[in-house]
Each structure stands twice: as C-alpha cells, then as structure tokens.
C-alpha cells in the first residue's frame, strides 16, 4: 500500500476511488471504464499541479519519503559484479555506509553510499543512514583503495546527518568527517557524487566533496535540517517551514547558487512513484558526468576539485 504525504491527501482520495472502482468492476459485469479513466485523468492533473509548486518544506518531505529508492537500490540496478567491502580496519563495520567495487557501464569503479534501509528492521540495522566515525573511516579507506588502483569513485549521499550519539563523539566523529572530506579533496581519481535523498550537514559532505555533484530533483542538501535550524534560531519547532525556505536547500536553489552541478529530473510524483525510471536517469547522469573526468590526470582532478569549493567560499556561500 502506497504511503501518501500530508499534502498528497487529495491525490490519495482519488487513487483510493480508482482502486475501489477497479475492485468493483473485477467482481461483476459492471462497465465503469469511463469513470475510472475520468478519475485517472483528474488524479494525474492533481499530481502535476501539486508537484509543479512544491514548497521547500514539501520537498523535504518528498526527499524523506520511506519508499524513495535508497543507495542499495541504485547499486543493485547500476553496478554489476558488485563486491561489498566492510570495516574501517580500526574499530568496526558501520552499516550506515555501504561500499565496494563493481562495474558501472563496463568500467570498474568504487561505490560508496549512505544506506537508510527500507523497513523497520533494515533501518535499525543501518542506523537510518547516520554513520558513526568508523563509517567515515571506511569511506576514506575505500577512497584510498580507489586511488591505489586508479578506479573512479561514485558516491551516493542520503543521510539526515552523522550520528550524534555520545559513543560516536567519544570515538572522534568530527575528526573522522574532516578526514573523509580531506580524502575527497585529495583524491587523484574522478569523484562524482549524487544527492539521492537527504544531504544533511557534514555527514553528507564527507562523501560529497566531488569533482561533480549531482542532485535529484526533489532531494535536499543543507548544513542543518529545518527542524534543527528552527530549534536553534527560534528556540521552537514551530518555524520549521520558514527555516526550510530560508536554508535554500532544494536542488533548484542550489543549482542557482552553484553548490551543485546538475539536477536529475524525477518522474511525476517523485522518485518513490517511479524508482526504475529514477535509477536509470541517475545512471545516465553519472555516466555523462564521469566521462570528461576520465580524460584528466590526477593533478588536474585535485586542482579542479579544490578550486570548485574555494570559489563557493569566495562567493560567500
């Protein structure tokens, strides 16, 4: 059964009517095809109107949709001969970040991504995509492995942020994130990152400091969540929607600001309504972004990547 967001209630009612009519039709001789077609057209029109004018807060809700495809879905569909690699060789395995070696469009690559999980059990196992220090140290280890064997890196970002627990802080969370960002910036092979859902705080940029940063149409990317921003600036959760607007966290805003390099369209109604199409579109975008980078040597890749982020600072971003 499809999960509907609060602002999708009118669409949910129409689709519920359609399903009820189809069930009624299948159980007898009634011909209600015309009524079903009319309701389907109305639902499609309502869906288009709704998604054509999403507010920043509504974009946040879409980016967090539980049925949205996660990193594991992209890896399964886009990466052949995938071999997962685990552990940071220092403390433990962190399942919030998945990674390994495989083939993307016939080329060997290293893939790293945040994995939120698809149901209650897997979400708990992956800690809702919020990594501890060992997760970021694993990411750094995989980037170093990629450089050693001259393999491009694809990063799939989808996290509310790094895990804020006491145990994570005790094991050096800030240092681990900083080292991961440093590894991204110093990497002498191409690094293409894609924000596929939430891109939250340092936990996201730890994997996203790439040569090219892509973003799905309804994904979000921000230094802090709207809820966190509201609690700090207004000392209340009542200003979450206002905070979402002020943060300029949508793909469209960030493309204008030059924070991301491209926006990948999603099917009508968001990635959760068309996972196969979304994954295919991102695969094409990743391939298009990767091709020109493959022609550059290590020094040029590092210089361009560093300059990209320096220019953001020079423009006050």
Characterization of the model:
- The chain has 317 residues and is α/β, with parallel strands linked by helices.
- Helix 6 runs parallel beside helix 8 (173-186).
- It is globular.
- Strands 1, 2, 3, 4, 5, 6, 7 and 8 form an 8-stranded mixed β-sheet that branches.
- It has 14 helices and 8 strands.
Summarize the entry for a quick read.
Helices cover 51% and strands 16% of the residues. The chain is α/β, with parallel strands linked by helices and 317 residues long.
What key phrases describe this protein's structure?
317 residues; alpha/beta; 8 strands; 16% strand
Helix-residue proportion: 40-55%
Which structural class do you get from the secondary structure elements? alpha/beta
Radius of gyration: 21 Å
Shape: globular
Please trace the helix and strand order, writing H or E for each element.
HHHHEEEHHEHHEHEEHHHEHH
Average per-residue pLDDT, rounded, comes to 91
Number of DSSP strands?
Answer: 8
> Cα distance, first to last residue?
42 Å
Strand content: 15-25%
Main β-sheet description: 8 strands, mixed
Low-confidence stretches: none
Counted by DSSP, the helix tally is 14
Helices and strands in order:
Blueprint lengths: L8 H18 L6 H19 L4 H8 L7 H8 E6 L12 E8 L2 E8 L5 H6 L7 H16 L4 E7 L6 H5 L2 H14 L4 E10 H8 L3 E5 L3 E3 L3 H8 L6 H8 L3 H7 L4 E3 L10 H20 L3 H17 L3
Parallel strand pairs: 3-4, 4-5, 5-6, 5-7, 6-8
Antiparallel strand pairs: 1-2, 2-3
Helix pairs in contact: 1-2, 6-8, 8-9, 10-11
